[in-house]
Structures are given as structure tokens and as C-alpha cells.
Amino acid sequence: MKKSAIAAVALLALLFVVDSSPVSAQRLYWTTSGMFGPFDIKGLIPTYPDSRQITIPISMWVLDHPKGLVVIDTGNNAAVSDGNCKSHWVAGLCDFLKPNQKRDDVIDRQLQKLGYSVDKVKVVITSHSHLDHIGNIEMFPKAIHVIQKKELYQAWWPEKFQRGGAHVIKDYDDARDFNYLELDGDYDLFGDGTVVVLSTPGHTLGNQSVKVKLPQTGTVIISQDAIWMKENLEGHPAGLNYSVLDYSKSLERLKMIRDLENGQLFMPHDEGQYKEKGGKWYR
Predict the structure, then answer these.
(1) What is the DSSP letter of 217?
(2) CA torsion 56→53→131→121, rounded to 10°?
(3) Within a domain: 97
(4) Sheet with 195-199, edge to edge strand ranges
(5) Is residue 164 a part of any domain in this protein?
(6) Number of domains the chain contains
(7) Is the pLDDT of residue 12 over 50?
(8) CATH code of the domain covering residue 49
(9) What is the domain extent for residue 183?
(10) pLDDT tens digits, 137-185
């Protein structure tokens, strides 16, 4: 009788361990919506001490998760492809950023290349409402769109200093009635700890980043514009910030999460990092 009871307890303990373990995110792909540049780095980071020409990637992510296909940011609008920037963006922004996006760089074609389609995407996480991150949101009318509630206000009524072209309302004017999961802070997307949306305000009022836990790679932090590139980690803040104080707090928070979880920090506009680590699956 005693042996039977011990065996039953052991079985229950085993079941508890199995049931309580999180479902691991299967794989994560890093791609780009073309590139910006070349242009002077001081145009993006005014405090940087030396002028030099840079070219930066416009990062997007595809997450193949057991609970649904996820896209993190949708890049530049398809309309700016193949040299047609000035038909969609203000001329001055086109002249400075010099987008060289091809039509095949756009998120729908990127999904096709990976064997998916836009109508199979369950969730679109938009880090913030600037033109190179929300540009193709209208391609995903069936998805659940995850965004900070404050960022929706930021999108529809941006501050004057951000109205020089960073927000292109025609990118999302037909997406007003989409299904939005409006967040107020961090959120565990699937309830299992594998995909956590992190509130990282500063660049915009409702900027957010994403932490993904992968079976082999471990913790990956997708900073999006909470941290643009390695120069930000060296103490030179990104330009066009809603709040430099909040921006600095968010940057430090992501660094601490990286260090505590022995993770990798992927930055959306770092050319060197993308050349080394982009264009492939992480598992």
C-alpha cells in the first residue's frame, strides 16, 4: 500500500513537471525591409562625435510558434519600393534616408519566401508607429495586432516634433478597425513565457520590445527602436526621442535582462550585427 502511494505521488509529480513546462518557441527569422542610406550617422545620433557614412537595415521578424505565426514589425510601406519613395513619403525624408527597398523585400514577399502567407499570420506585434515599423500593417486585416494603447494615440496624433514625416498616417488609415490588443505595459503573449512584450518607452510614448525564449538559442531580446545600434550602447542616444530619460531607462532595462538571462540583444538598425546574424533562422 505504501509503495502504491509513493508511486502515485511520483507519477503526479512527473505529470506536474510536464504540464508546467512552457511550450518553447520553435524558430525565429530575422529579415529586412531593405536598407536606409548611406547617410551621416550624426543625422540619426546627433551626439555622435565623428561624421561617417552608414547604411542601416530595416528589421522585421517572423516567429513560427506552436500557438501561431507572429510577425514583429512590417517595415516600410510597399509603395516606397523600387525608387518610388517620393510618391508616399515627404521628399526631404526620402532624400535623407535613401530607402533602397525592392518589392521582394516587403513583408508579404518575405513570408512567401519562408513558406507562409499573410493570411496565416495570427499576431502582428508593432513596436511603434514610425514609418519603417508600421508601414505594411494594412496587409494583415485578419491578425490580432499587439500594440501599446499609448502608441495608438501617438500614431493618430503625434507630437509636432515628430510630424516631419516619421508618421505616415496613410500607412494605417485603413487599419483603424482592426483587432487591437491594446497594452498598458508588459504582456506574456501566449501565457507560457516564451514571447513577452516589453514596454520600452522613450523613443516614442508607447515603444515596445520583445523577448523570445528559443529551445536552442535561449533568450533573444528584439529591441527594435529602444536601441537602434551599438553606438547607443556606447552612450550616444538615438535621436527623435519622446523622452531621453525614459529612453535611457528602457535601454538599461534591456541590457539588464540580457545579462541576467545570458541572452542576445538584437538591434534593428545595426548594419554590422545584421551582416553577422541576420537572414537566418534561430531555433
Answers:
(1) T
(2) -10
(3) yes
(4) 187-188, 195-199, 208-214, 218-222, 264-266
(5) yes
(6) 1
(7) no
(8) 3.60.15.10
(9) 24-282
(10) 999 999 999 999 999 998 998 877 777 689 999 999 999 999 999 999 9
